[in-house]
Amino acid sequence: MSVHELVLAVETAESSLPFPAIVFAGIAAVTFLALAVVVWSFRDVANRHSQKTGGQAGHGADHH
Q1: Angstrom distance (rounded) from CA 17 to CA 24
Q2: What parts of the sequence cross the membrane (predicted)?
């Protein structure tokens, strides 16, 4: 078996992607944006619930 035949055998044995590479990039971008929306939706949770705990209680503040 010559080197040329070996290279051809390896090239034909490669598996192809089910989608073009740009589709995988698009899926990754959409996933990243969806997770960013989730993080953005929780951006003010600590401040919304601060009245229930009395402000900074539990964060080193002394309330004696």
Answers
A1: 10
A2: 20-42
Q: Which H helix or E strand runs over 31?
A: helix 21-41
25-49 per-residue burial string, b: 16 or more CB within 10 A, e: under 16: eeeeeeeeeeeeeeeeeeeeeeeee
Whether 19 and 25 have beta carbons less than 8 Å apart is answered as no
pLDDT in tens, 24-47: 999 999 999 999 999 999 888 877
Q: Could you identify the residue written with the tokens 């990039």?
A: 25
pTM (2 decimals)? 0.51
H/E segment holding residue 24: helix 21-41
